[in-house]
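Project standup — Tuesday

K.O.: blocked on the structure for the chain from last sprint. Re-posting the sequence here as requested.
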Amino acid sequence: MRIIGHLDMDAFFAAVEELDHPEFRGLPLVVGADPAGGRGRGVVSTANYLARRYGIHSAMPITRAWRASETARRRGEPPVVFVRPRFRRYSEISRRIMTILRRHSPLVEEGGIDEAYFELSSTGSYEEAAALCRKIKAEIKAQEQLTASVGIGPNKMVAKIASDFKKPDGLTVVTPEAAEDFLAPLPVRKIPGIGPKTEGFLARQGVKIVADLKRFSPPELEKMLGKWGLALYEKVRGRSSAVLVEEWEPKSVGEQETFGQDTLDLAFIFERLWDLCQGVWRRLQAEGFQTYRTVVVTVRFADFDTHSRAYTLPYPTQSRRTLVFEAMRLLMPFLDRRENPRRKLIRLIGVRVEKIGK
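H.V.: unblocked you, prediction finished:
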């Protein structure tokens, strides 16, 4: 019997900020860019559950989050507290949480800084798996004063969807026999791989919930969505063959900044690029890595036209100076007519390192 668990920390970044700053508790909180009184640029990284009641969510433009806060304030509700992210602190706590998981499971696949899949088949039953997950949740709460939600299912897909079913501090068990019925009433976006574009396409076919997809045969889904349609046929029936991977490592570490004002001021842009490189270097080390091979620079113009350029070194390096040099070299063409013939102003730049190692 195959039993898989998925652990997802509840509003992780925001929860850590509340833990470290008790004065934030009981208030709506957003971790992300500086809203600058409604003139800020950038997005929300995480919103706590009180802020989500205002309609604020991850990846929302920070200006919209600020307007939602102001609307709530005018209703007499508490305004949102906005704080900048502290990735080193989040990584530190994440490592301790993963250590707890590894004490109880022979196989753990980290899915990110705040989530992981883990093997539960050795417990022998869904009842015992649930009991073990309650113990894991209790240990995390006792050690870190943070809550996690856990989903248990016959495969990674069902477990992940289940972990989001009862948040925060939830535990949802979906047996193989119940998987198909569990998925049927959910919005199609809940199925991994269905993004906004596919959701819109399916809506035009009259498909809004998972059950709607079950009326299509494998050939029909393949005609609609290509080979992925065949995989989708299995997924909507609660079947997935993805296996756990023992070692998870981030494929990249990066940071980006949206400028307060669109610009082509070289001195300002290079100053911000240098700071981004320092931040990437600090995060790389905080997450336990020492080397990288690929440097990627992203540029977004004022019209939201976005480009990335990358360079891969012939060998891994530990050099911070090389990171800065290559990032500047990749950025330069966007500041002149090589990549920016119309002299468009720049809205955002980002720096990322890939092929990282310990």
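K.O.: great, moving the ticket to review. The two ends are 36 Å apart (CA to CA). The chain has a mean pLDDT of 91.
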